[in-house]
Amino acid sequence: IVLTGGDDRLWKTWGFPDGNILLTGEGHTDWLSGCCFRPSGTQLVTSSGDTTVRIWDLSRRGCILTLRGHSRAVRGCSWHSCGDFVASASMDSTSKIWDVNSERCRYTLRGHEASVNSIEFLPFSSTVLTSSADKTLSLWDVRTVSRL
Fold it and tell me: 35, 87, 115, 125: which could form a disulfide with 133 (CB 3.0–4.6 Å)?
């Protein structure tokens, strides 16, 4: 199964080798910039130009949570390997760590001087890697909200 998102505001799961569309999700009001399966495979996260991050339940075939807090387009998203946290990177020069269980932002990472274009949790750790249009990469310890 492959997951895609695009300018049409939709995410799609595709089955292979046939290449048929298995599921389609709609709800964002602008382009999708990122999408990622939860480690358990039961949910996915999407990020969008509409400034939101959304959690989707594949069995319910719909959005179960919309996370708001960025002031500009969200450029990327990532699940933590435990499945309880989602990270987002935004054109507002911040990244956020979201607690999916409490449905709130746990931390806001500040320090880049331009759009944060990607974010990724390092596997089985509390470290996040961000890349920015300010031409820097940063490693963050999300327990202390500090750069490493």
Answer: 115
Q: What is the pLDDT of residue 147?
A: 81
- What is the architecture of the domain spanning 2-147? 7 Propeller (2.130)
Closest CA to 11 of 53, 51, 40, 39: 53
- Residue 6 Cα distances to 32, 36, 93, 110, angstroms: 5, 13, 22, 27
**Alpha carbon of residue 114 to chain centroid:** 18
Amino acid letter for position 7? D
Non-local (6+) Cβ contacts of 75 within 8 A are 33, 34, 47, 89, 90, 91, 115, 116, 117, 118
Per the CB < 8 A criterion, the answer to whether 101 and 59 are in contact is: no
In terms of pLDDT, which residue wins out, 97 or 147?
Answer: 97
Token pair, residue 77, equals: 């998203």
Question: Would you kindly state where each structural domain of the chain is located, as residue ranges?
Answer: 2-147
